[in-house]
Each structure stands twice: as C-alpha cells, then as structure tokens.
C-alpha cells in the first residue's frame, strides 16, 4: 500500500527528519548572516580590549569634530575631521584660542594662513590623513565628540586613562543587536 500524500501548502507531508533538516539549515543560514559584517558604521572602540563603545550611521564624506581642553595652555581646541575614500579619516580644520606648546604656531607649508577671528584662531584646509586615530581619554581634557548636531562626552562611553580608536568599518548584525562579537563575548554598545 502506497503512503497517502497530504498536501500542505502544495508540499507532501513533512517527516520529523525533513523538519529537523530544514531547521538546521535555517539556523546555519541565520548564524552566517548574523556574524557576517553587513553595514558600514562610524565606530569608537577601546584599543586594549577591542570593545565597540559607540556606533553611528555611516555616510560617505561625513564630518565630525573632537573638542578638548589642551593640557598645557588649558584652552579649548576643536578639531574637525571627515571620512574620505576607503574610510580614511582626514583632519580638515582646527579652532583654538591661543598659541602655545603643542598648538600649531604656523600653518604647514603650502596651506592657507590662519584666520584670526575675534575670539579664536582658525586653521583651515589641513586635509591631513590620520593613519590610526587613537585618543587617550584624560581626566581633565573633557574630550567631546561632535557629530550630527550632538555632543557626546567621551568619558561617558570610555574609562578615563584609556585609549580609544575612531574608525569606519562594517559590523555584523550580532554585534549591533546583541553586542556580541564573533567569539561570543558580550559587548556594551552605545548607538546613535
């Protein structure tokens, strides 16, 4: 006697073996796509642990700034950056209130001269590539990320006395949704 075929959505009856095979294939496919980096983001991560601390939607040519209090002359400096080709980060301009140790005293050769405004000095069109953008989060510098009309204190997302790296790159769905990297470690991520 031939087994009776029942039609469920046009398919023959599903056996437990077929169902378990289908579930295994589905789990493998979801796992693959969950850990495969899919979308590009602006990323801040800790240098020591490689922990993702902050992500922001990536836009080609996007601009952002870092403001901080200079350690020697104790004045505020704001540096502006943009993401260029191949996700490279470029320093585009800087604003500061006075010259001093560690602050440019003249523009690089071939660049525009400083612009002297009422309350600040502006150094424009620098366009210098930053090969590895690492910032030491000090205890008094008050490093602040300026991005998309927001100000984010970096000591709120990273510990003082730690190094952070700013970069652009792809992240997997697992990292974004669960803060889990490809090794299964839980991560804390701030997303904007």
Structure write-up:
The chain is mainly beta and 192 residues long. Helix content is 14%, strand content 38%. The strands form 2 sheets. Strands 3, 4, 5, 6, 7, 8, 10 and 11 form an 8-stranded antiparallel β-sheet that branches. The chain has a 5-stranded mixed β-sheet with strand order 9-12-1-2-13. β4 and β5 form a beta hairpin.
What's a concise summary of this model?
By secondary structure, the chain is mainly β. It has helices at 16-35, 173-178; strands at 37-46, 52-57, 63-69, 76-83, 89-96, 115-116, 121-123, 128-130, 133-137, 144-147, 150-153, 162-172, 190-191.
Topology:
Layout: H1 16-35, E1 37-46, E2 52-57, E3 63-69, E4 76-83, E5 89-96, E6 115-116, E7 121-123, E8 128-130, E9 133-137, E10 144-147, E11 150-153, E12 162-172, H2 173-178, E13 190-191
Question: What tags apply to this protein structure?
Answer:
192 residues; mainly beta; eight-stranded antiparallel sheet; five-stranded mixed sheet; elongated
Between the first and last Cα atoms, what is the distance in angstroms? Answer: 64 Å
Low confidence ranges: 180-189
Given helix and strand content, the structural type is: mainly beta
Based on the structure, what is the oligomeric state of the protein chains? single chain
Which strand-content bin applies to the residues? 35-45%
Individual helix count? 2
Number of domains: 1
Described by strand count, sense and barrel closure, the largest sheet is: 8 strands, antiparallel
Number of strands: 13
The H/E string reads: HEEEEEEEEEEEEHE
Query: What's the helical proportion of residues?
Result: 10-25%
What is the mean pLDDT?
A: 76
